[in-house]
Amino acid sequence: MRRALWLVRLLLVLALALSPARARALNDAAAGAGYAYYPHPAGGAPPRPFLPLMHAAGVRWDRFDFPWPLFEPAPGNWQFAQQDALVNDIRAAGLNILGILLWTPAWAADGPCVTGFNVSMRDFSLASADEAPIRRPGRLYPFSLLSPPCATRPPHGLSEAWDDWTTADGDPINYWGRFVYTTVARYRSQIAHWEMWNEPDLGWFWSGSPADYAQLLKVGYQAAKAACSECTVLFGGLAFYANPSFYTQVIDLLRADPAAPAHNYFFDVTSLHLYSRSSSLFDVTRTVRDAIRARIPDRPIWITESGVPVWDDFSVNPHGAPYIWSARQTEAASFALQAYANARLAGAERYFFFRASDDWCDKNGNGHCNDAGTDHGMPELYGLVRDALTLRPAYTAYQLATTYLISPTWISYWNYTNGVRRVTFWGTPHGKVSVLWNTTPTTTQVSYAAILPTATRIDQDGAAQTISASGSAYLLTMPGATANNGLSSSDYIIGGRTLLVIEADTVPPPTITLQLTATSPITFALSWAASDAQTGILGYDVHRRAAGDADWTRWLTRTTTTSARFTAPSEGEWCFRARAWDRAGNLSPWAERCASYTQAARLVVTEVFGDADQDGLRDPDEALITATLRWRTLAGGDVVSPTVDQQWTVSAVVPLGQYVLEAWPQPESGWLPRAISLTVSAAPEEWVITQSVALPPQRASVFIPLVQGE
User: Fold this and answer.
1) What is the rounded CA–CA span in Å between residue 631 and residue 605?
2) If you placed Cys at 394, which of 329, 332, 444, 494 could pair as Cys (CB 3.0 to 4.6 Å)?
3) How far apart are CA 496 and CA 440, in angstroms?
4) Mean pLDDT score of the chain, rounded to an integer?
5) Helices (H), 232-279
6) What domain range includes position 195?
7) Mind listing the pLDDT tens digit for each residue in 124-142?
8) What pTM, to 2 d.p., does this model score?
């Protein structure tokens, strides 16, 4: 019954808020989940029930382990059958895959490895009070338990060339390079994104040094690219708070490698894991991006794990109680929207919620997770969906994010003085969409400027209603924050109940006009204008480039001015383009114009003669020659109509720059054609070019017979 009510409510939301109707099927593939492939907990049908549930939630990625010990339990003994079936099922469900390449088999571990050692997963379930939220794993991976001291060790032979797979040369095999190449090559038609290890800055997952991980990343990158040149390689997802300087140490080591620039510094994407505090998705993501930009060229950031454990789902854990970094189910729903909005605002290209389902450790349902050999799994409740296949409030909230917070032209934010935060997604297929929440525990109101008389307000649980502007604003009541399981009782790690405001202008300004005049050899005057019948014009973007350049340079961004002057660094032709933003963030088509300063120029060809001695001067015995004379641009166009003569005087108004004078004598005249470079520069009056044309003699002719075959 609960699920049926949820479906009815969702259909109502869609009917009220999805405008235009075509937006119902839109998805920008920015959202993912972790471990969506899990089998049916009771062994029923469908065999992987969380996959369709995640797809319905808007998830388009599944992130999970590709554990080396499972695939190669002994050297050269490859066993991929189980993973083949898994990959096929996920791709058939319409999800992309982010594969995590990790864990070292005991036989490949470099250094001492204590077999048979196990760690109580419950000892790693909670972060201590003096650190920011760090998710502790419930188990190493879903197939079987490994000995952590073995699995986390750097592989043997890692310092060898990535493709050194023989001992015939007297040194060790690079087993990691062989594993990565073999795995990526096997799945290259199904998987294009690979993450090199998981949380290497957390000792539970990686017991090597930053230098060891830098080498692992370098080898893995080269092996993956050799197996699949178009594949994307991710830096192993960072727990960050566990060791905030780890990633910069690794990048500094990679930057010192002479081969790094040619290999994109051995990773294409940075990945982050940020939990429990929704503001960290903005703050930490920007911190990491700035630190990377200070060292190497920028690259995308993906949030490959993010979530918050819930403590109050007594239907799953009857003994639940609040603890640090945990939240109520309704607060976890708030987190899903706030974290997603903050991550995208900070520039994250992808966002993966951890997890699709709980994989709750009390497998026999006796109220605790201590049954040796029976209980296993996660000791905290992270799932969007319970193992019983019922949906948590966070599922609905995440579905709202993947439905409405998509394909923006721009994302901005505003912090009101009363503690309310707003993140706005402009120009989405649904219009202008704002996410709002209160960061303080006190209920308050905000006045939100309206661009339309009415909007759709959607609560985090999916309830939708039409609201009307009072004057020029919507008055919104924002409930206070309640999630204070942070570092103190006054530390609110998640804002209050979150809402969306959707103003459904999806029609861009139809056209924009752009006027351009060169007022001097290096100065250009521009003006532009556009109109929008629904919400009006917000501003304009204007870009520029020198003629012939491939890339545009941003000049003015969302400016409200409608004219400007540009002083170029050099003479020549310059191109400009402009587009308009309406107040919902929709963009007009670009209008483009090119111009250069023009100059009145006169070309005087004093004589065309046969230069027998090729000294460039006309001697008394050197006759004038009649030729076809052409004044051309470098692109080959005629400035004026050609003439046939021995002399020529012609005037034209032309752009400043380089030109060519061509003289073409009759083919049987005994003289060869000539091309001469000309320059037109700025002058107070007419620019005069005076030129004589000396034609070189034709010394010999070679005739090539034409043979026609059948």
Assistant:
1) 11
2) 332
3) 8
4) 91
5) 246-255
6) 64-88+96-261
7) 333 333 344 555 444 333 3
8) 0.84
β-bridge mates for residue 63, sequence order: 34, 98
In a domain, 304, yes or no: no
Domain end marker among 238, 261, 284: 261
Angle between helices 210-227 and 246-255 (to 10 degrees): 60
Domain end point (choices 595, 621, 647): 595
Q: How far is CA 58 from CA 70, 254, 449, 627, in A?
A: 31, 37, 30, 72
> d(Cα 448, Cα 497) in Å, to the nearest integer?
17
pLDDT at 170: 87
Task: Please tell me the distance from the alpha carbon of residue 505 to that of residue 534, in angstroms, as a whole number.
Answer: 7
Residues 38-89 have pLDDT tens digits of 999 988 899 999 999 999 999 999 999 999 999 999 999 999 999 999 999 9
What are the pLDDT digits (tens) for 194-239? Answer: 999 999 999 989 999 999 999 999 999 999 999 999 999 999 999 9
For strands 193-198 and 232-237, give the pairing: parallel
List the one residue out of 283, 263, 264, 260 whose CA is nearest residue 272. Answer: 283
Q: Say if CB 307 and CB 275 are below 8 A apart.
A: yes
Strand partners, 473: 449, 470
Tokens 């010999």 locate to: 700
Domain count, the chain: 3
pLDDT at 375: 85
Angstrom CA distances, 519 to 405, 597, 602, 618, stand at 45, 7, 21, 41
376 domain residue, yes or no: no
Alpha helices in 19-80 (DSSP H): 50-56, 68-71
Say whether both 602 and 588 belong to one domain: no
C-alpha distances in Å from residue 199, one per residue of 61, 240, 271: 19, 8, 9
